[in-house]
Amino acid sequence: MKQHLGRQSGVQSVDVSLLDGKVGIVPKEDARIDPAGLLKATFDSGVSVAEMDITARGKIVRDNSGRLALQTEPNRSFALAPNDQSKALEPLAGTPSIVTVRGWLYKKSAGKKKPEPQGELQLSVLEVQKKE
Amino acid sequence: MKKLALLIVLGFSAASSAFPQVKHVEMRVEGMT
């Protein structure tokens, strides 16, 4: 799995902790990393992902359907799952403010044996670390 | 010429520091051997 992930574009390093089943991925400086691709690569390597948590920096925008999203690159954004944290970010939509947030991008649903990510990944914000 | 070079360097550093990004990804996995 480490090799699988290490081959993904934008990945600087992969740290695997067998003891607690955690995998930490550090993106390269240019940070053109694709979390959905990492998730797929992990499933393809035969390992089941229980949750994926990301820390990302970006602007709060509204997507074409009016939902809040975190834009991390000019052509990449993550739709924000509605919760108290995302509500607090709503006033920043469309402003030049940059925020750093940590949140779940994927969480295994209870009861499914081999859940695979389907459709668009939504970011459930757990913590707003910084507002600039 | 020196001024131009300095402007280019400053422009690049400003762009890279202002560029939004994914900073860290962590996964909890199951079935890893």
Q: What is the N-to-C succession of helices and strands of chain A?
A: HEEHEEEHEE
The total domain count of chain B is 1
Structural class of chain B: alpha+beta
* Largest interface, Cβ cutoff 8 Å: A-B, 37 and 16 residues
Report the principal-axis shape of chain B.
rod-shaped
Question: Which residues of chain B form runs of ≥5 with pLDDT under 50?
Answer: none
Mean pLDDT of chain B: 67
Structural class of chain A: alpha+beta
CATH superfamily of the largest domain in chain A: Bacterial OB-fold
**Strands of chain A, count:** 7
What is the CATH domain class of the largest domain in chain A?
Mainly Beta
Number of domains of chain A: 2
Describe the structure.
- The complex is a heterodimer of chains A (132) and B (33).
- Chain A is of the alpha+beta class.
- Chain A has 2 domains: 47 residues, 2-Layer Sandwich (Alpha-Beta Plaits), CATH 3.30.70; 81 residues, Bacterial OB-fold (OB fold (Dihydrolipoamide Acetyltransferase, E2P)), CATH 2.40.50.200.
- In chain A, the strands form 2 sheets. In chain A, strands 3-4-5-7-6 form a 5-stranded mixed β-barrel. Chain A has a two-stranded antiparallel ribbon with strand order 1-2.
- In chain A, strand 4 and strand 5 form a beta hairpin.
- Chain A is globular.
- With 33 residues, chain B is an alpha+beta fold.
- Chain B has one domain.
- Helix content of chain B is 52%, strand content 30%.
- Chain B contains 1 helix and 1 strand; from the N terminus they run H-E.
- The termini of chain B are far apart.
- The interface between A and B is medium-sized, with 37 and 16 residues.
- Strand 2 of chain A pairs antiparallel with strand 1 of chain B, so a sheet runs across the interface.
Question: What is the fold's blueprint, element by element?
Answer:
The complex is a heterodimer of chains A (132) and B (33).
Chain A: H1 2-6, E1 11-17, E2 22-27, H2 35-44, E3 48-62, E4 68-73, E5 76-80, H3 84-89, E6 98-107, E7 122-131
Chain B: H1 2-18, E1 21-30
